[in-house]
Amino acid sequence: MAKQANLYSFPDTTSLAPALRAYVISCQEAGIARHGVFKVGISGGSLPKTLAQALLPEPSSEADTVKWDKWEVFFCDERAVPLDHEDSNYALVKKELFNKIPAGSPQPTIHPIDTGYLDDAQELADQYEQVLVRSFASRDSVKLPIFDLLLLGSGPDGHTCSLFPGHELLRETSAWVAPIEDSPKPPPRRVTLTLPVVTHAVRVAFVATGAGKKDIMKEIFEGDSGLPCTLVNMGTGERCSWFVDAAAVEGVSYPRRPFSL
Ligand SMILES: O=C(O)[C@H](O)[C@@H](O)[C@H](O)[C@H](O)COP(=O)(O)O
């Protein structure tokens, strides 16, 4: 049987954060060993706040260091709004995480969308795909970009990135970045990494916390739901790890693993 996604459950976010940190740093080190940088995709929602809790504390040792200057940050999905708009994932991640890296410390390289194309979601997606092409080498030489890590959230309907349940975008097979004009979660116009890109990453980590996630976690982990999160689990198997708190998985029948790298 194919190996399945790892489910790591912690009593609360405070105990989840150090494990998430250790996991992200191990992906960072693998990326640096592979190509000298760490290519990571970040989502919006509640994730950036939890990431800040995990990554901003001072390192306890050399091996525990977040090497921000090696980080190349991309957005797993982004809303078609200006970069200072309250709906912008870029603005959110900056506010919650990157603006809190002490000035004078090494800083990450961040790749936002090109806001010159906000009126045309297809063009916005194509332009962002070109950002990936430049970073990951040309589409001719690589069929799909290989992120070192994608950090994802799960919506209460089982969506991840801007891949929504039952949406035709789930059948996309060739684009790396796709537009969506009818997102059920506002705002409606967005761009998102496609499912083949998500499942091609070296590692994928979901962070899901709070009792509000309980019902959808049951569907994702217990059934053959076809939900976007389930499709990611199926497409990545053991390369996928869920960092959850106890409230989010209360009553979910799926084996928890003790966290280890
Ligand atoms: O731009 C977005 O809408 C997010 O990237 C989205 O995919 C998010 O990760 C989930 O909706 C989970 O959000 P919560 O963590 O807030 O539940």
What is the secondary structure topology, with strand pairs?
Blueprint: E1 6-10, H1 13-35, E2 38-42, H2 47-55, E3 71-75, E4 77-79, H3 89-96, E5 109-110, H4 121-136, E6 149-152, E7 177-180, E8 190-193, H5 195-200, E9 204-208, H6 214-222, H7 228-236, E10 240-245
Parallel strand pairs: 1-10, 2-3, 2-6, 3-5, 6-9, 9-10
Antiparallel strand pairs: 4-8, 7-8
The structure holds 6-phosphogluconic acid (6PG).
Description:
This protein is α/β, with parallel strands linked by helices. The protein has a single domain, classed as Rossmann fold. It has helices spanning about 15-35, 45-55, 90-95, 120-135, 195-200, 215-220, 230-235, and strands at about 5-10, 40, 70-75, 75-80, 110, 150, 175-180, 190-195, 205-210, 240-245. It has a 7-stranded parallel sheet with strand order 1-10-9-6-2-3-5, sandwiched between helices. Strands 4-8-7 form a 3-stranded antiparallel sheet. α1 (about 15-35) crosses α2. The mean pLDDT is about 95. The site of 6-phosphogluconic acid (6PG) has 13 residues, from loops.
